[in-house]
Amino acid sequence: xxxxxxxxxxxxxxxxxxxxxxxxxxxxxxxxxxxxxxxxxxxxxxxxxxxxxxxxxxxxxxxxxxxxxxxxxxxxxxxxxxxxxxxxxxxxxxxxxxxxxxxxxxxxxxxxxxxxxxxxxxx
Amino acid sequence: xxxxxxxxxxxxxxxxxxxxxxxxxxxxxxxxxxxxxxxxxxxxxxxxxxxxxxxxxxxxxxxxxxxxxxxxxxxxxxxxxxxxxxxxxxxxxxxxxxxxxxxxxxxxxxxxxxxxxxxxxxxxxxxxxxxxxxxxxxxxxxxxxxxxxxxxxxxxxxxxxxxxxxxxxxxxxxxxxxxxxxxxxxxxxxxxxxxxxxxxxxxxxxxxxxxxxxxxxxxxxxxxxxxxxxxxxxxxxxxxxxxxxxxxxxxxxxxxxxxxxxxxxxxxxxxxxxxxxxxxxxxxxxxxxxxxxxxxxxxxxxxxxxxxxxxxxxxxxxxxxxxxxxxxxxxxxxxxxxxxxxxxxxxxxxxxxxxxxxxxxxxxxxxxxxxxxxxxxxxxxxxxxxxxxxxxxxxxxxxxxxxxxxxxxxxxxxxxxxxxxxxxxxxxxxxxxxxxxxxxxxxxxxxxxxxxxxxxxxxxxxxxxxxxxxxxxxxxxxxxx
Amino acid sequence: xxxxxxxxxxxxxxxxxxxxxxxxxxxxxxxxxxxxxxxxxxxxxxxxxxxxxxxxxxxxxxxxxxxxxxxxxxxxxxxxxxxxxxxxxxxxxxxxxxxxxxxxxxxxxxxxxxxxxxxxxxxxxxxxxxxxxxxxxxxxxxxxxxxxxxxxxxxxxxxxxxxxxxxxxxxxxxxxxxxxxxxxxxxxxxxxxxxxxxxxxxxxxxxxxxxxxxxxxxxxxxxxxxxxxxxxxxxxxxxxxxxxxxxxxxxxxxxxxxxxxxxxxxxxxxxxxxxxxxxxxxxxxxxxxxxxxxxxxxxxxxxxxxxxxxxxxxxxxxxxxxxxxxxxxxxxxxxxxxxxxxxxxxxxxxxxxxxxx
Lengths: 123, 481, 357
Prior knowledge:
The complex is a heterotrimer.
Chain A: E1 3-7, H1 11-23, E2 27-31, H2 34-44, E3 48-52, H3 60-69, E4 78-82, H4 87-96, E5 100-103, H5 108-122
Chain B: H1 2-49, H2 55-60, E1 67-73, H3 80-88, E2 95-102, H4 108-116, E3 118-121, E4 135-141, E5 147-152, H5 158-168, E6 173-177, E7 182-183, H6 187-197, E8 202-211, E9 216-218, E10 221-224, H7 231-253, E11 264-268, H8 269-274, H9 285-299, E12 305-316, H10 322-342, H11 353-368, H12 370-386, H13 392-419, H14 427-439, H15 444-466
Parallel strand pairs in B: 1-2, 1-6, 2-5, 8-12
Antiparallel strand pairs in B: 3-4, 4-5, 6-11, 7-12, 8-11, 9-10
Helix pairs in contact in B: 1-7, 1-12, 1-13, 7-13, 7-14, 9-10, 10-11, 10-15, 12-15, 13-14
Chain C: H1 2-52, H2 58-62, H3 69-80, H4 86-97, H5 100-107, H6 113-126, H7 132-138, H8 144-157, H9 163-170, H10 179-189, H11 194-200, H12 206-219, H13 225-234, H14 238-251, H15 257-263, H16 270-283, H17 286-293, H18 301-312, H19 316-328, H20 333-348
């Protein structure tokens, strides 16, 4: 089963994404901060990561950078969730190695189709 | 016979002194009670409005003023890179970072150079505000347009480093941060909000400071608020609650904020340049700057506001040893007196409104003369007891009233913190703050009074000896009223 | 005397004890209610997540005990600001079916100002068109917070029809709206607001003209180039002129070059000249670069630096001009050298990321 890791400190969003993706047949692991995201990623080797940009400990961008340096995780596609729709942020996200990004508020359906697209591109 | 009369006169004097002491305590604490009431009302208002404050909007707004964050650094090799990174990742639309390496003899500069890939650039530095130490070189980070490091020769004054940074800064708002201050991610936007809300009038804002001892930090951010293990630091936690959360919030609401801590404050650059930047050689440079801001704005008859933001977003390490704390408090007290001394027109001047009529007299009476009264009161009470001028019972009552009033205020502060920010969220922390609030009255407060007295004496001595010979000419802008 | 002292000791100690008890009680209540509401919310959330994912019939939510009603309302309002698309549509129709929207509209005229703020925020999140009129009325509320919240919500509604009332709120003397609030609201409405905002350029109030100019620049509204150029030349307010200059730079149409060029001449105020330099540079072109270069080396530090910076951002053309000045030994040389060094540092590290360690 395709494994997806989601990291966001907002429980409402985590549950929503978790439900939507689980319903669509993915194996979802959820964490609430950047540090846990890295630890969990190294443990479960997800096929895709969805990271919030503003999280405690490491930001989503920091996690992306760390993941890109880690040989095990360097190829894992990453979708960033950003609350601020600022160019600067998306620029930095892509520079760090993110695959795609979505701005909050987000549409769960759209997220699902992006996840499918990213995974298809990757396969 | 003569001896008896003498003794009874002495007894009367001592009893009188005791009454004065008691009166002083009552007055001081009552003023504080008023401040607390004002602050509590203000805090309540702040909290109710918070969900609608729109700082998320300010983060997205293209017209939110960009900020130059200025960090003066002297031998800060251990933490400077982390501090710099923490500033760069603050949640704010547009900011630049200016670090002044003020003649460090350690690896402060080298650490920064390696971390940010600094390159030296030729730069014309304008003399917008006066500086003394020569600027050796200006460096910027490769690939980032918003990190500048200045290397300058030190004259041993933080003020000179700050003025150099002001000359380099390119944005309309200046944020002054201590190199060892730990800021929350939203610290800058929270403290800048008054400028967004009221751009015509706000000229300066200050942030609340809390002790970082005992808190867990990660990558230059506080991740978990805690209580220090050291009792001296715990007492300072209560002290900071009283002074910052309530004292300064109260003064700010009354329009008479006199001190914006040098650890975290935001200023409008144009006004800072108009008043000539920091006063070279000033010990209490933060209070001095604000005092001159008040004077300048009043003189020009421009409506203005200097706002204190009570939300705790800046954390600094407080001294855990008596020796260091003593040095710090001596310096604060000396700085305050020198500020009041060099801005004499502020005192009892109705032109300065609540500042002149309330805040400055308060600081002079209670912060500067306070230690003298407190210590004399304490000593006379003991003397009076020894010679039986007052009976033990009476003295006990005197002492109890004074102390209990103080305790009540501290407990009130803890109560208000509990209702408002609620940062010390473990039961253990609550008990520790309450015990500190009780214990500080026996020993800590007396020591504190003594240290402040030392500072006052230092300030007076210095003024006798070298007031005239201070090389001030040419550096002080002509703003005397 | 002794009595007074004893009385005050008693009073003080009673107060201290009372405060301590109050602190303890507040702590207890807070901890307890936090735990309870977290648990409740977690439970509700599971239902809710299914619901917005179209896997749950609304009637199941309605069957919940009425005691859960407020919590359900809170959760749906919280969710409202976090999702969009079909999930949001489901939420909105659920809230409408509960009558929450009409309730909120009724609350916009209630007496407590915090209630009015809450209602305005809610209506903004819901975004139903029927909220426009009541929100516009709130722009003239006597409480500033209410006015600001209403403006923000009108932005979220995104109906261009509310542009005139947003703009006129700026110059309302006693009940004004802050500049940045209006600008952000207009930006949210987006390009459909352009024409109505364009009318604001002719408004009597200068703050309206300022916001209009700023907005049109940010939107790159090229068809207003002529009007903006005219205001740049003739507006009595310097602030309006500066904003027009910046806007023309952002729009980038060459037809603005003539009027901007007039504004960099030395008889203009410094603020206008520096901004005009940047605007001209943003439009670009070799002649423009030469024109700005003439200012580098002027006595005024700000002008020289602004001109040099502007030219350095013009690409190869600008760098070429600056190289010439830098090697010339003219008074402008130090400025040219500084911005060249900056430009070089910027280019070298372009691929690096700031947070990389």
